[in-house]
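Researcher: Next entry in the queue.
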Amino acid sequence: MIWLTWRQFRAQALAGVAVLAAAAVYFVIAGGQLRHTYTADLASCAPQSSCDSVLGQLQYHYDAAFNLTELLVIVAPALIGIFWGAPLIARELETGTDQLAWNQSMTRTRWLAFKVTGVGAASIAVAGVLSYLVTWWAGPLDHITGNRFAAMTFSSRDIVPLAYAAFAFALGVTAGLVLRRTIPAMAVTLAVFVGIQILVPAAIRPNLLPSTTTTFPINQTTTSQATGITGTAGNFHFEGVGASPGAWVLSAPPVENSAGQVVFMDSYSSCFPGPGSSPHPAPGATKANFDVSQIGACLADHDLHQSVTYQPGSHYWPLQWTETGIFLALTTALTGTCFWRIRRRQN
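Model: Structure for this entry, 347 residues:
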């Protein structure tokens, strides 16, 4: 049975090995160059304490490759589910070769176990190697951005891609077994996996662990820590203040007064002496072109405050493990459904 499974799976396996080999060569070479440049840039800018611009240019230079590699790790589980999981059983049922296997001494349960275990392990291994390569290659860039919770970054680093691959594979096998047709099973696998990849970062991940809400007064001390000020339709809020370093900011409502009402720039126009004749700072104005601490000092007498809700940076690994556990639980449930359905057909 092992030999037969390998014979049926060898084309996909060789394709996977070829992709991994090409990815490994690229990441090792490009990763070495990136780390060398990062170290040299830090050594040159640290004495002048002016690393923001230098590291920003480095990040910009690798921005396209950064986004592309993240997308590669996120797409890989979907491709595994579509091209490895969905045809695994559906093709056998379509061509009738399942009857040949079932008429031998092999039981249906054992037949399914061989297929799911062998190809499923290969799926997790491919995702694991890709995730490790990207996590290592992007290390300096992740340190520059300081945002490990961005949707694509979190989903393409460390251990969660392994769980995504296991889930996508089990989803494809289940769809193939239920629908008994390869193409519909591939379509269903793609649609469900994409839907879950959109749903989880937007609605589930932020609520997996209790978040923290901090409220702080608007004054010179608090706004001196802000990295900028943004707003729409006259309301405004200060960025980069209130949350601990490396935190995942879930919401940052506009500045409010003591009654809990949103306030507008026009009500405090004398505190926003923008560049030139403009009474307001430009959207996204930063410390480089606007002194936010002076705005805070001017607003201090008006009893204003701002709140920010966030997941602390220390929640990164608990969220990784929790999300991995959820997808592995779904994988177990789908795999159990496959075995239950095979046994039901036997009876």
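Model: The chain has a mean pLDDT of 84.
Researcher: Noted, moving on.
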